[in-house]
Amino acid sequence: DSGVTQTPKHLITATGQRVTLRCSPRSGDLSVYWYQQSLDQGLQFLIQYYNGEERAKGNILERFSAQQFPDLHSELNLSSLELGDSALYFCASSVGSGGPSGANVLTFGAGSRLTVL
Amino acid sequence: AQKITQTQPGMFVQEKEAVTLDCTYDTSDPSYGLFWYKQPSSGEMIFLIYQGSYDQQNATEGRYSLNFQKARKSANLVISASQLGDSAMYFCAMREGRDGNKLVFGAGTILRVKS
In Å, what is the CA distance from B93 to each residue of A6, A39, A50, A62, B106? Predict the structure, then answer.
């Protein structure tokens, strides 16, 4: 158990729908990162929050949004879902806000597998 | 341009032998970190080893070592005494100093350990 909790583990929904993925970071970690893993795109960075504030943005679609709450858990909202949004969505956490240092190793959750039919 | 290149889509290794997984990277930032993660078939991402650009010595963690050749911009992962449980996808990743919040991953290498 990595200490990063993601729910749900699996989700099947239809095109056009909206889903929310939830992440609780490891105890003591202030940063939360969201990644999308798909067969054609590989692992893509979506967005990062640090202590409640957005810190970095990657290849996140406008249909997607995220937030980090005061208790540091984070939610990733995916709306107007398309078939191509089917992927494994990872949440990761780290102590610090970033930087190349090994002190900011990302600890990943088990992922939420989204299937859009 | 690709930041991280893993040229081996798949590798086989005999149990108890050593294997090297290749990773080359591209950056002009003098400050960066290199990471290796393992993804077994169950799907989770497991951190293995880290190498900083200013580290003088190659990183080692148990059976994992990183062959860091800065001039060649390569950071190959060496797994010694392979075990069946090492069968997984392995990802090399980089985090640059100037964009320190984003960890960029390579396409991965699937490793299969044969008994």
Answer: 22, 17, 21, 26, 6
